[in-house]
Amino acid sequence: MAHRKAVSVILTRDPGSTEVYLAERSPKLRFFGGFYAFPGGTLDDEDLQVEIKNAETVPAHWLPYLVAAAREIFEETGLLLAHSATMPDKEKQARYRQALLAGDLAFQEILKRERLEIDAADFHHVCAILTPEFSPVRYDTQFYWVQVPDGASPDIWPGELVRGEFYSADQALAAWRRGEMLIVPPVIFMLQELSGHSLEEAAPRIDDYAEAYRRGKIHQVYFTPGVQLVALNTRTLLPATHTNAYLVGERHLYIIDPAPSDPGEQARLWDYLDDRLAEGCSFEGILLTHHHSDHIGAVEACQKRYQLPLFAHGQTAQKLPQFHFAGFLDDGDTLDLGEAPDGRPGWKLHVYHTPGHASGHLAFREDRYGAVIAGDLVSTLSTIVISPPDG
Questions:
Q1: How do 182-183 and 35-37 pair as beta strands?
Q2: Which of 229-233, 239-243, 267-271 has the highest mean pLDDT?
Q3: Domain range for residue 9?
């Protein structure tokens, strides 16, 4: 699968600021609609044709990303990240922006008309992140930190973005944990590293994480607080290539569907789980949605490695006599998750018996944010209809 080249810009108001600009993506967008993210977008062919001041100070392959960053930021926020002896006034900039958004004028032409220069010195590289391979749409994104020009402020015109605001990392994460805003997964880990720090201080740690991801470390993916998606390569039905395992909980975690049978993929899973233990989390047990081989490949090894009890529906257990089950789950059961990520007590994981794809199929719903772990009831790539007697 080809990777689309993209750029994302982390805007701050001054070098030591602990606040960053987050914009809400339109709910109509296919990719992370309704989520908050840093502004940015994909590269265009014209981004290859713009000369940049101080270009010799950065790697040559970064130059189109800098042009794309300046163009996207102008489109999305109205900030003109370029320099001229006589800058166009705000009214003229607004007309240029409108023409650019309408497709009536290229960004390159705006730069030429106003003798504007993009300066590489304005853009500070933070990291590069490649969307995990389980995603049907993958982006190779360069993240840059840019300080908002003096006297300017972002101005969202509703379209691809609907609103934006400067947040401290702690403010944004608290709102996310309260369920008040959705945040794209890469930004979650960046905000966690930014907590209590300026971007200048946090950038090296963010880059370390991103480099580990590019070397094959499993991405920490939250689509909702308290539920981590762990996509693992398995022998599943094509065109799908991965099965989703999940960690549910905040400090006390249940592992759902440890899937891979391949030793190398299992090693990646152990590395991910060991990181959670190092953070002070504990594992309460393993839960299975159903018995199919692409959901259970690491169950026995996971039980032995972490000394964990195993739970599933009774009909699932009957089909897996090689495993030792500590107990059986059925419709209406609940599991205690402790405190929710926002500190609310009494957080529960509800169990639903959902036969169809498999006679003992279970789905799980956590009751703070309403996230559902549906097993193989829903698929975005392959069919859930299989050969009898299930399916």
A1: parallel
A2: 267-271
A3: 4-214
